[in-house]
Write a structure and sequence with these properties.
There is one protein chain. The longest helix has 13 residues, at 2-14. A 4-stranded antiparallel beta sheet has the order 5-6-7-8, with helices on one face. It has a two-stranded antiparallel ribbon with strand order 1-4. Strands 2-3 form a two-stranded antiparallel sheet. With 176 residues, it is α+β, with helices and mostly antiparallel strands. The two termini are 34 Å apart. 21% of the residues are buried. 23% of the residues lie in helices and 23% in strands. β7 and β8 (147-151) form a beta hairpin.
């Protein structure tokens, strides 16, 4: 991805474009499992790497070099773009703008987010604090536990299901 962005920037600069005036948004619809839950090259689970989509925003007048660790969802992009363009947001929007994060680095994320996957695997998950709770409705041929809990700060590849050890956190995730 970095190579592709670099090439686009070189083309624009080569055409004499004032890069201070260029707006670029790079994103995706999903990430990819690279060992998480024992899966490789898969993106049909409601886990952190699948639902943690890449997002790069370069926008005139916004603070440079910000890396947000806040929790956001795809529906937050539209109200954010409205704010970036100075346009009114509709009351029908479900999302929350993260314009202030882009403008001055202020974190604007949620305390928790719900993740959903309904491809050949059907799961509903919640990320809160540094935990990931996953409820599997249909495993799509994978042998997933019905409920799983992972400590993302200690187990980034989601290899150690701590559901039986942390029932209070498991229940908190289920409530979210």
């Amino acid at each position: 991805m970095d190579e592709c962005i670099g090439e686009v920037l070189q083309i624009l600069e080569g055409q004499g474009t004032d890069m201070d005036d260029v707006a670029i948004i790079v994103t995706s619809d999903h990430g990819e499992n690279l060992g998480e839950l024992g899966l490789y090259g898969e993106h049909a689970t409601a886990d952190e790497p699948t639902c943690h989509i890449p997002m790069i925003i370069k926008w005139p007048g916004m603070k440079k070099g910000i890396v947000s660790s806040g929790l956001h969802t795809n529906v937050d992009l539209l109200p954010t773009v409205c704010d970036l363009l100075g346009q009114e947001k509709s009351d029908l929007f479900d999302g929350q703008s993260y314009y202030e994060t882009l403008k001055n680095g202020t974190e604007t994320g949620y305390d928790s987010v719900v993740l959903t996957q309904c491809a050949h695997v059907v799961q509903r998950s919640a990320i809160f604090d540094h935990y990931l709770y996953i409820r599997t409705i249909h495993g799509g041929g994978h042998m997933f536990e019905d409920e799983m809990l992972f400590d993302l700060s200690a187990d980034v590849h989601q290899q150690n299901n701590i559901a039986s050890e942390k029932t209070e956190l498991l229940n908190q995730g289920a409530r979210i």
